[in-house]
Amino acid sequence: MEFGINFFPTVGPDDKPAGTYFDEALRLAELAEDLGFDHVKTVEHYFFKYGGYSPDPVTFLAAVAARTRRIKLVTGAVIPAFTHPLKLAGKLAMLDNISKGRLQVGFGRAFLPDEFDAFELSMDESRPRFAESLRACQRLWAEENVVWEGDFYRFGPVTLLPRPYQRPHPRILVAAAITPSSCEQAGRDGHGLLLVPSISKREKVQEMLTLYRKAYAEAGHEPGGDEVHMSYNCYLSEDAGEAHAQGKEYSQRTNSVMVDAVAAWGQRRSEGYEGYEKIVDRIAKADFDRSLAENKVLVGTPAEVVERLRTIREWFGDVTISLQVISGNPAFEESVRTMRLFSEQVLPHFRDQD
């Protein structure tokens, strides 16, 4: 198993100035490399405390690239619907070169109605727009004199500069939330997968993984390339009571800012997002103690988290785990402690594949 840090901010100006947030996040990214973590990841969101301090993952990861030498850089995920593919492919190719090939590109459809409204885009078009943009980026990276005649974009012939450092292009990961068909398509296309298991029942996640891995194998892609990333809120302390109490507080803070971000789903319906109208009620009913019992959060002492991860590996296989150590806005020193405890007392158990 591999492990990394996922920067999912859940703060606004009244909680922490943006300059302070970025200073702390970059220091944590450097620490992640020093402690032997495998990747640094960040999201793309707008306007709300739920991710709003990260409107451009590429900018943040470029700063991380300048401060590190080894660790992978992962967009988790960029939203192609909000950026023209010529611009997006070029920005990502720059980052791939700046980092000397450490980039993995996660693409996502987005799911917040307010974001689509602000960009004046129809949510009903999000799936075909996503597919077209992703394919356009692939061609721009891999080919020269590209001519594109799609439903949403037309351009060419153009040859993207700079060319990607990795050839034909960086590893692609596709974000999937609750839609099994998205997992199947990612497998057929030979891409990796980004999942958030906390929002679904274990059996649903296993179903999605089975569909993904079966589609990947049947399409004849390279064995071992079916990479799966899973993100978990993480809080560690050597005192179990403290870990559970603080982990619960930060989880509840995260839920409260998410409720605000998804509120528009209370009045919105979209054929491209079947079932999302239930998301407001689902988040409102979130129960930390149940999530802890179901191994949907990595909270506890190092020994407890080792056992949780062993169970997760039994359920889902050797997936890549992204630790959300800043969600809920813990103090910087608490995030440092979580990372150090994980590196020193948890990570070695899974490096040896015991």
Automatic annotation (TrEMBL):
Residue ranges that the Swiss-Prot or TrEMBL entry lists as coiled coil: none
Keyword list, A-Z: Monooxygenase, Oxidoreductase
Gene3D superfamilies in UniProt: Luciferase-like domain (3.20.20.30)
InterPro entries given in the database record: Bact_Lucif_Oxidored, Luciferase-like_dom, Luciferase-like_sf
Superkingdom assignment: Bacteria
One GO cellular component term: cytosol
Record protein name field: Flavin-dependent oxidoreductase, luciferase family (Includes alkanesulfonate monooxygenase SsuD and methylene tetrahydromethanopterin reductase)
The species this protein was found in: Actinacidiphila rubida
